[in-house]
Amino acid sequence: MGARDQIRQRFNELSPALQQVARYVLDHPNEVVTASMRNVGTRAQSTPATLVRFAQHLGYAGWPQLKEAFAGDMGLGTETYGGRAKQLVGRSQDRGLTGEMFEVQRRNLEATHQQSEQALQKACALIEKAPAVHAAGFRACFPIAFSFVYVYRLFRASVHLVDGQGGSLEMQQRAFAKGDALVVASFAPYSREALQVAEAAKAAGCRIVAITDSVTSPLSLLADETLLFTINSPSFFPSVAAGVAVTEALVELLASRAGKPGIKRIDQAEAQLFESGAYLLPPVSRG
């Protein structure tokens, strides 16, 4: 049983002071992992001594051990990128090196298909009902958000990329309105900006679709629907290939449900791309 499940199960037996801490750590799991004990205590309107007592009541030796358990729940391993990269050194002549990568990717796609097949239909229904759709992904997850917006915009105008360019993240978040949808992507270790955007969307009354690697990720805990993707990789950095794949499946379903009006908008968008010169015209066949 994970640390958060344990807290939920034992919540009613806690004293009022410990319940106050429990509410905060359940609502802000990534702060438990990234912030100091003193900062967590201040934000939870509690004291470091109470946090230690809270951890010990749950059976942990102290706050660092509870913090480690939260990190484990969130899929945050202790192995660094550099540590994993060392395992690749000297393998450049290994003929099986790239084959290993493609085999892992095949397994990632299969696992992602099984994990998200049912959730895709629910995510589609949520997105279709929204007056406007916003999408966010930062660092390695930027391609996931960008590809979603780029392709979805071919048949829906009210789709917007939240990228924070030029320090404009707060300005873009002001566009969030009640009933809108946010599609947000991140995997462990989770992006601070992705969580910030998700929290802003929640506060504005948006519905949230999380594209992430775990049902216990901070994004999933805020989301109305979660699309899981697998990030396994034999390389030093987690893979986003399955995240792009599940996003493409999402847009495919949205297109299939858009009907004839959607087809018309796609035809118009494609024609405009050719007319504007964005796409090169195919060579004219000569008889």
From TrEMBL:
Keyword Transcription regulation on entry: yes
Organism: Variovorax paradoxus
Name this protein carries in UniProt: DNA-binding protein
One Pfam family from the record: SIS
InterPro entries for the chain: Homeodomain-like_sf (IPR009057), HTH_RpiR (IPR000281), RpiR-like (IPR047640), RpiR-like_SIS (IPR035472), SIS_dom (IPR001347), SIS_dom_sf (IPR046348), WH-like_DNA-bd_sf (IPR036388)
Any one GO biological process: glycolytic process
Keyword terms, alphabetized: DNA-binding, Glycolysis, Transcription, Transcription regulation
GO molecular function, one term: carbohydrate derivative binding
Secretion signal, residue range per the UniProt entry: none
PROSITE patterns: HTH_RPIR
